[in-house]
Specification:
The protein is mainly alpha-helical and 133 residues long. Helices cover 46% and strands 5% of the residues.
């Protein structure tokens, strides 16, 4: 997910890292073959979720520093459809394809030199069953 990056200072005690993977997707089925792998999956997803919450809270605290264009483009959305497990899996596949299409669009634009106004955008998707009282 990360690799060592070029040093950003002359302090030899510091090690700099950069993101390599711009997308990841994990599911229970990838880890259920062994209890220790299932525990690692749960620990990773909990940590990632808390990181996502911190990122969004930081955005909320700093949103006034963003341009009106970026504030208008940012969004938060929640839905509670009643789906079967197979339908939720299909929804996941469709959403991932949409994200991949926009990722390819972004990469092609950057490759063509279209970098003006581009920012890293956090997009976190979760889909899971919930029983409501």
């Amino acid at each position: 997910m990360i690799e060592e990056a070029e040093p950003q200072s002359s302090d030899g005690r510091e090690r700099w890292w950069q993101l390599v993977m711009r997308h990841y997707s994990v599911q229970d089925k990838d880890f259920r073959d062994a209890p220790e792998r299932a525990a690692a999956y749960t620990a990773f997803t909990r940590t990632a979720f808390h990181d996502h919450v911190e990122l969004y809270e930081r955005y909320l605290d700093e949103q006034s520093a963003w341009s009106p264009e970026w504030r208008a483009a940012a969004f938060s959305s929640q839905s509670l459809p009643r789906l079967t497990a197979a339908e939720l899996n299909g929804l996941n596949q469709e959403l991932l394809e949409v994200v991949r299409r926009w990722q390819r669009h972004s990469e092609a634009a950057i490759e063509a030199g279209d970098t003006e106004g581009r920012e890293n955008v956090n997009l976190h998707l979760y889909g899971f069953p919930a029983r409501r009282p």
